[in-house]
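Appendix B, example 12.
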Amino acid sequence: MRKIILIFFSFLLTVTLSGCSSMKRTSPEEIEKITKKVNNSKLILLDIYHDRCESCKYIDPVIEKLKVKYSDNPAIVFLRYDISNPFTIFDSRKIAKQVGLENIYRAQRFSGIVLFIDAKNKQTSDTLISEYNLDKYIEIIEKRLNAT
């Protein structure tokens, strides 16, 4: 019993020191909005992220440029699976369950990976690992968006 109490307090201390307790949660309204976007899209770009991942820090600006470039295109949706801590994992998995990507999310264990997912059949079509070249992302996106 004493071990369990020590583990529990260690967990609480970790959560408090890491800032997880004050994290913004995704509201049901936001999840519904994301679900509608996914249901009306053709391609999902899923960024698997961890706040201590060096590759993720280099991928992040690339993803932001892509979001700007494709901001007017409803055929593509950008999602992030944040595996930084139990709270962000839980929040990300709530979204995954709602949009039908639960199995894909559950299979991911490593960050620094970007998955390109067909929004209709929920299958991964392409994967980039620790890739920082914007042109490679654009090439895959254009190929997938222009596919019949």
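The chain has a mean pLDDT of 86. The chain has one domain: 23-146.
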